[in-house]
Amino acid sequence: MAACQTVPQSLQHCNFTEIIPQRGVVTLFGYGINVHVDRGHLTIRDGIGMQQRFARFPRVGHGLKRLVVIGSDGLVSLAALRWLADQGVAFALLDRLGEVLATTGPVYPSDARLRRAQSLAEDSGAAMRIAIELIRRKLLAQERFVREKFQDTALAEIIANQRHALAKANSKEDIRRYEAYGALAYWRAWHDLHIQFSQSDLRRVPQHWQVFGTRVSPLTKSPRLAVNPPNAMLNYLYAILESEARLAISELGLDPGIGFLHSDTRTRDSLACDLMEPIRPQVDAFLLDWLRRAPLQRKWFFEQRDGNCRLTGEFAVTLSETSRIWRQALGPFAEWIAHTLWSTTLQSSRTKAPATRLTQRRKREAKGIPTSTSVALIRNPRTLSRNRVSIVPHENFLETAKPGRLNRFDPVAQARRADTQRRQAVALKAWTPADKPGWLDEKFYREEIQPRLAAVTVPTIVSALAVSESYATNIRAGRRRPHPRHWLTLAKLADVSSS
Do 176 and 88 have their domain in common? Predict the structure, then answer.
């Protein structure tokens, strides 16, 4: 008897979990990683047995911007890399310790004159200028961060003194020394930060996991191989930042390995490390907002036998979704570096300056749109990625301006809402009905105060009540009635009294 044909098995019968890009990012981890092209579609899979994930993306409408692979077990075909390049999708390979192993992105023709200027930056003086400005921006961000987030004026002044000392730096060693002294004060402010875990997890959480501690791991005497969750999260976020820095530099036609501050080595891309410096405090701000927003969960982390704290794959996926934020923050700095190097070349008046692929500044100028782009605000680290700055090709080009809007599902927007809700809850708990005058009742507010709010500007209401602009607009228009604790303040703004 002839053997019967094997019954074909389809994915629908096998409990596969579909992979859906989150903010344009897909992260693969664990065993069984497979990325290949099948009939023109990018097909990706990870996991083993019945615990597998699967996705199939067409060339049009896929919504994919970044493909991140964590681990070194699996297969990525050459056809898949070509598919990613054709679609302008960046690829990053990280090892299980969070180090960047490889990155690829959209390929553009590079200008030999720009690379030559990068190689000669030490002789032209551009290297010192760039290094000083990047570290100045970093120290400025750290100073404001410590002053506003930790309310520590003494440590903030130490960092400010190091920033002022940069003006007399004569060598890279001077710059590194001032940066190191500032870092000592900066991480001292973090040392006693309490790390929250849910009550059900506390019995399974080691004592040293419940405080931020030091950035130096006892396992390596360096930040590598963190021994508690916040430092492990920070290391992974820095790895995502580094991969984005490499991509940004390569996209502008520069060499990621020829840096101006970090020493040249075979194990890292020095210019990518340089570019990361002014953005690191913004990553720190993202982490601090996360830690203050909600308790961590024990299931997100695991401890190896040597005490090294690692992130689970599922949690790493969540952190990988922040790559878009860091790309937007890196763009203006990367383009400024390219323009600074270009200014040292001997080009004719008809020669165009390097393209602004990261911020799209030239396209905005051509359309008559103000030449601004999104970058993280240093004054308020919570607004990581949506503040607007003007781009001018010289060393002091970053000037903060009005922040833009965030998507309500963005992690930064969620952090903002959580912070606002916390503040409002504290104010509500502190308020008692006895604080409100007896004559100020609902009828008085509706008939006397509300009609006169039309003469009060929305920014004034926002500032007086510490509420959002949209909520203040609704209060002014009468669509929302604020809590009674705000009535007296609004009465004063509308110039209304009991008489």
Answer: no
| Contact of 481 with 447, CB cutoff 8 Å | no
On whether both 202 and 242 belong to a single domain, the answer is yes
Q: How far apart are CA 69 and CA 310, in angstroms?
A: 16
Is the alpha carbon torsion for 368, 371, 375, 379 positive or negative?
Answer: negative
DSSP per-residue string spanning 5-40: PPPP--GGGTTPEEP--BTTEEEEESS-EEEEEETT
Both tokens assigned to 285: 């701000």
The pLDDT, as a whole number, for residue 228 is: 94
Looking at the fold, whether 252 and 320 belong to one and the same domain comes out as yes
Q: Are residues 131 and 209 in the same domain?
A: yes
3-state secondary structure of 100: strand
Q: How far apart are CA 437 and CA 217, in angstroms?
A: 57
Whole domain around residue 464: which residue ranges? 431-493
- pTM, two decimals, is 0.67
CATH value at residue 29: 3.100.10.20
Q: Quote the number of domains for the chain.
A: 3
Q: Collapse the DSSP code of 57 into the 3-class scheme (helix H, G, I; strand E, B; otherwise coil) and give the result.
A: strand
Which pLDDT tens digit goes with each residue over 74-94?
899 999 999 988 888 888 888
Where residue 489 falls (left for φ over 0; alpha for ψ -120 to 50; beta otherwise) is alpha
Q: Residue 181: how many CB atoms within 10 A of its CB?
A: 16
Output phi, psi for 25, to 5 deg.
-115, 135
**Same-domain status, 172 and 312:** yes
Domain endpoint, select from 320, 345, 370: 345
Residues in the chain predicted with pLDDT less than 70, given as ranges, are: 1-16, 96-98, 107-109, 267, 347-351, 364-419, 499
For residues 186 and 152, the answer to whether their CB atoms sit within 8 Å is no
Report the alpha-carbon distance of residue 158 to residue 154 in Å, rounded. 7
Render pLDDT for 346-390 as a digit per residue (tens, 0 to 9): 765 556 777 777 777 777 666 665 544 333 333 333 333 333 222
Q: Which long-range contacts (CB under 8 A, 24 or more apart) does 467-474 make?
A: 468/420
User: Phi/psi at 303 (nearest 5 deg)?
Assistant: -110, 130
